[in-house]
Amino acid sequence: MSDTQQRIDELVKANEVVLFMKGTAQFPMCGFSGRAIQILRACGVNKPLTVNVLEDDAIRQGIKDYSQWPTIPQLYVKGEFIGGSDIMMEMYESGELQQLLTPN
Predict the structure, then answer these.
(1) Tens digits of per-residue pLDDT, 3-16?
(2) How far apart (Å, rounded) are the C-alpha atoms in residues 80 and 67?
């Protein structure tokens, strides 16, 4: 595992909710990242760990390799890859995402 993959793995496993996105929660730099943050807030997640992939090219490419998923944003909950903003929206609309994000 490369250093970048190791860093990503540690972030994903050490935090309950991690969103790899373009920009920050306060200032999303693309519509999909903005929508992902809105969905998380609608689920009651006000302070997810966000990783701005625009600040680190290694992370930007590394997260795609880590998940085998070609696009950003990418959501991880409890160490598990969930998907991008489209999948987040589908899961939100079905109620599945809220259940996943509810503390046990």
Answers:
(1) 999 999 999 999 99
(2) 10
Name the burial class of residue 49, with classes exposed (0-12), middle (13-18) and buried (19+) by CB atoms within 10 angstroms of its CB.
middle
Predicted TM-score (pTM) above 0.90: yes
Amino acid type, 58: A
Kindly report the CATH number assigned to the domain that includes residue 97. Answer: 3.40.30.10
Alpha carbon distance 4, 35 (integer Å): 26
How confident is the model over 38-63, as pLDDT tens digits? Answer: 999 999 998 899 999 999 999 999 99
Q: Is the pLDDT of residue 90 over 90?
A: yes
Number of domains comprising the chain: 1
Q: How far is Cα 41 from Cα 64, in angstroms, rounded to an integer?
A: 24
Give the residue numbers spanning the domain of 32: 3-101
